[in-house]
Amino acid sequence: LPAGSSNMSGNRALRIVSGTVGLAGAGLLYARWYVDKECKKLERSETHDDATALKQYMMFRYFRLHGDTVLNVLDHDARHISRVQENLLMTLMRQHDSAAFARQLGVHLASNSESFRERVPLTGYADYVPFVQRTLDGEPGLLLSPRAPPTMFVASAGTTGPPKWLPMTKQQQEFYTMYSTGFTYGRMFAWRPDTFSLRRSCRLLFPGSAGTSSAGIPMGADAAVSTGSAKERLPVYSTPEAAFAVEHAPSLLYLHLLFALRDRDLSSIQAEYAPALLAMLALLDDPDTRAALLSDLEGGTISQDLTMALPVRLELEAGLRPSRARAAELRAALAAHDARGRITDSFRASRTGRAAEKTSASTSARASPSSEDASTAAGAASDSAAPASAPSSAPSSGALVTDIWPRLDCVVAGSAGPLAPSRAALRRRYLPSPARVPLLDPVYQSAEAILGGNVAPFDEGSPPPAQQQSWFQLACPAELQQELLPRRAAVPSSAGKPGEDPARPLEAGAGGDAPPAPSEVALPEDTSFLLLPQSAFFEFIPVDAAPAPGSPPVEASAPPAGGPTTRLLHELEAGRRYEVVVTTKSGLWRYRTGDVVQVVGLQQGALPVVRLLYRKQDSLALPAARHGQSAGSQAAGEPERGAADGSPAGPDGGSGGAQ
Length: 659
Prior knowledge:
Elements: H1 5-41, H2 50-79, H3 81-96, H4 100-105, H5 113-119, H6 125-136, E1 152-156, E2 164-168, H7 170-191, E3 201-203, E4 211-212, E5 218-221, H8 224-230, H9 249-262, E6 268-273, H10 274-282, H11 287-299, H12 310-318, H13 324-367, H14 372-384, H15 400-404, E7 410-414, H16 420-429, E8 439-440, E9 443-445, E10 450-453, H17 471-475, H18 478-484, H19 518-521, E11 528-531, E12 537-542, E13 567-568, E14 577-583, E15 591-603, E16 607-615, H20 621-627, H21 631-635
Parallel strand pairs: 1-5, 3-6, 6-7, 7-8
Antiparallel strand pairs: 1-2, 4-5, 9-10, 10-11, 11-16, 12-13, 12-14, 14-15, 15-16
Helix pairs in contact: 2-7, 10-16, 11-13, 13-14
């Protein structure tokens, strides 16, 4: 080789490395410049610094991409639904057929979905109880393969007695996180572009674990599945990280509200389920709790009535700057809220009294013909008596949340099926019309699995995106839409009547007919969910034989000796009702969830779009078990005292949403 050739080669390599590093550095500088420029275009909360604002921006970019990916996966699954379900079942059988309970059921003898349904019986929670307790005591290989042990046990929320503890695997938790994030943020950004900003959101998160078993396995509510992953997104939320060290749930609920009130430009409020949101907003209806919140905002302190460790209290107070101006603004907003409530209650009471006078007068008229003139005069007098207490001075669109957070874009909370009364209570008491602040119900989930996603998420009355129809409109025939939603046009409207808020439904005794039952009114498009073929292996037990309009009636097959006949995910019919049976990634085999759904459409002719109706036997216990409310109060749409009716929910009071 020529002399110095090795040096030439070394110099060339050095130049290549230097050039690569230089280009990479220039690319990083450009990326940082571009991100900073984009961040400056977006509105941001005053509580953000540059570092936390950058983190939120990068997270939102990821969430938007993630939401598109989830929809692309669903689009693929809809075209290959049978194959996706068969592959999932075979994977689950290979992973866990060595578990003692699976072998007892005969899972290892099945070779495909057909033989699986023939050999393996339907199961209920009673079949799992002995294995659950032994697993909690530390015995491996009972419910799940020793290669994939449970990471925690979650409590099923649809029970009225002791909780039903169900296993949860890492694979299932990752699926929860992936799809809940994709549907929540992906759809939120698509339908409400203003939510893609650097304004914070209030997220009601609570301690994920209620304790551990004797073997050290974590145990908690099913909401805890998403709590761990949500803590990684703390820059997005208004509640500081130190607050999550507070284990006393009512105190943590108070802190969520306190730090949300501090941020006037809040973008959204998010809760796992609607009753938790009711519980938080109801704190503002209690005079003592309200006074404590305003005092804390003015002085930059944390109420001494809250239960927490001293270091946590000091850290929270260090980040809570006094804000007298914000406290004064909140006092004015709450005073207006109180005035609206007093005026509305007084006006309704006056209407009820006039209706009683009319009834009494008409009864007298029937009893005595000579009293006809007096009856007519009484009716005329009552009709001419203008409602002096009608809220003419209060704006009909006024609502507490928009008075407190004028720029609130949306509310996110589970509110389908048995939770519909909580949704109605939120609208009636705290939220404005859906067109102003829509309510997003992103996923259909339970302790068993996350079963569906809402791709048309906002409630009825919300403005849809330009040139975009909901999945309900695309998948459900027009005639079936009319059949499934027969009472929409018949719901009494208070628009145009003095003293009535258009967003608040008429009540019995307020004039006109009594309102329909909640199940007749709460039929918005946003409560339909697209079932997720990769979530679980689905089966369905027909509950009724109501055919779709124009189709011949098809009776459910007679149940064999081993149990009722089931249908697969691609065999469902629009308009019919089914009980959901799942085989999950957490060791549940042909498990009867008790959830009853109605198929309202078929996406691409195969993937069902369903509406959650109720849970069999304990349909009213879903919100009660999870949020500490009685079934009766929930059915009536009225929160139980101490949870969401304005009663004190301080450190010593119960708070349903905190569980």
